[in-house]
Amino acid sequence: MTQIDHGLAGKENPLGHIKVISFDAEGTLVTPDFTHAVWHEAIPAFYAQRNGIELDQAKEIVAMEYDKIGDRKVEWYDINYWFRYLHLDDSEPVIESCQDEVRYYPEVIEVLSSLGSRYKLIVASGTPVELLHYLLQDVEHYFAHIFSASSHYKQLKTPDFYLQVCQKMDVEPEEIAHVGDSWQFDFLNSKQIGINAFYLDRIGHDHQESLTDLTQLKSRLPG
After folding, report:
1. What is the dihedral of CA 200, 204, 209, 212, to 10 degrees?
2. Whole-angstrom Cα distance, residue 69 to residue 72?
3. Rounded (to 5) percent helix, strand, coil in the chain
4. Which of 9, 24, 153, 201 has a 20 to 30 Å separation from 31 between CA atoms?
5. How many CB atoms lie within 10 A of CB 69?
6. Angle 162-172-149 (CA atoms, 0-180°, nearest 5)?
7. How many angstroms separate the Cα of 212 from the Cα of each of 24, 42, 132, 204?
8. Four-CA torsion 60, 64, 70, 73, nearest 10 degrees
9. What angle, 0 to 180 degrees and rounded to 10, lies between the N-to-C axes of helices 43-51 and 55-69?
10. pLDDT tens-digit map of 150-177
11. Which of 17, 26, 15 is CA-nearest to residue 149?
12. pTM, full prediction
C-alpha cells in the first residue's frame, strides 16, 4: 500500500505544463446557426436568384454539389472555391447577410475570461477566415492567434496542421490543450502528436475523455 501511494505521489499532473489553450470554433465556441445559414440558406438562395429557379430546387442542387466533394477534402471548407464553382459573385455580401445568426454557447464568455488570465488562448479551426471573422467578432480579443487550417495552411486539421500551430506558438505539443467537437479532427488528430486533447460532446454520448461543455474543461485544468 505504501509503495502504491509513493508511486502516485511521484507522478506529475500531465496538464501542469499547459501554456496554451486551443479551441475549435464551430460547435465549440459558436453554435452551427451562422454557418448553416450561409451554406444551406444564403448560398442556395443566391444560386436560385442567379439561375432563375425555385429555392427548393437550388437547395437540392447545391447540397448535391457539396456531397460530391465531402468534408474530407479541403475544398469543402473553402467558401471562395464554392462561389467560383457555382459561378456566383462576391461572397462577402452573402456571408454578411447571415451575421445575425452568430450565437455563442452560454458558458463561452465566462470560460474565456477565466482561462485568459492564466493561459494564452488560440483558435485552431477548419473554418475559412472569411467566416471566422464573423463567428469570432465578439470574442476575438481573447485570442493571441487565430489559425484556419483551410485558409492559412490549405489543409484539413491534420496532425501536421497541429504541429505547425505548435511551431507558430513556440511551444511543445504537451504544452497545449486543444478542445473541439470533432472526434477525428479535434481529438484524434491533435492527440496523435502529443497535444492534450479534449473531445467536446455537447449531446452527451459519453465518449471516453469527453466534455459536455467548456466549463468542464476549466475544471480539468490546474487551478
Report:
1. 50
2. 8
3. 50, 15, 35
4. 153
5. 16
6. 15
7. 14, 30, 23, 6
8. -110
9. 120
10. 999 999 999 999 999 999 999 999 999 9
11. 26
12. 0.90
Q: Note the helical H segments in 70-128.
A: 79-85, 92-96, 108-116
Percent of the chain with pLDDT over 90: 84
CATH number given to 2-31+103-220: 3.40.50.1000
Query: Is 147 in contact with 168 (CB distance < 8 Å)?
Result: yes
Cα dist. 174→51, 79, 147 in Å?
51, 33, 18
> Three cell numbers at 142?
481573447
Question: What single letter denotes the amino acid at residue 15?
Answer: L
Give the H/E segment covering residue 171: none
The C-alpha cell 489543409 sits at 155
Measured in residues, the chain has a length of: 223
Q: For residues 200 and 217, what is the distance between their CA atoms, to the nearest angstrom?
A: 9
Cβ within 8 Å of residue 156, ≥6 positions away: 72, 73, 74, 77, 126, 149, 150, 185
